[in-house]
Amino acid sequence: MEKLQELISEDQLKAKVRELAEVISKDYAGKELLVIGVLRGAFIFMADLVRELKVPVTVDFIAVSSYGDTTESSGIVRILKDLDENIEGRHVLLVEDIVDTGLTLKYLYEYLQARDPASLRVCTLLDKPERRKVEFQPDYNGFTIPDYFVVGYGLDCGQRYRNLKGIYVFHPEAQPEITGTGSRSKEGVPEC
Question: What does the alpha-carbon distance between residue 147 and residue 169 come to, in Å, rounded to a whole number?
Fold first, then answer.
């Protein structure tokens, strides 16, 4: 734990998830919602969120890769696992752990929009607007954070730290060289 500095506590996360679920439930009152989680980082956030929703919910998952072996998104998104559910004519909420450059979420939004859902909105736990490379604004956002490399609550470093109950800055003393999430580089990222 000496590598980590708490940024968002477990209690803050719980309160924010309840707050987001309340707003989303009001927005979708009287409708059934298909919640799609982006694997792997969003799975804990999504699980907590759907348990707080007060509308009928079905779930699905999509897995993508846009980083490869670097900490910078290439902008080229590969679908590693596509949806099992047909989204045509359905109200869809895409749930992601973090939006930084916006490249992956913009791609996913357009990819899903082409399948003709009744509505499509995006909910992110974390937003790092300093890193934005394309215009993209989530419909629902938990926290806006500085450009830190963060782990915990589903976010990882080398598949570690996902199980932490809070969000932590990883190696705060090395922040200028470490950015992004969900990707690991051979250079510039500390050993996890």
Answer: 10
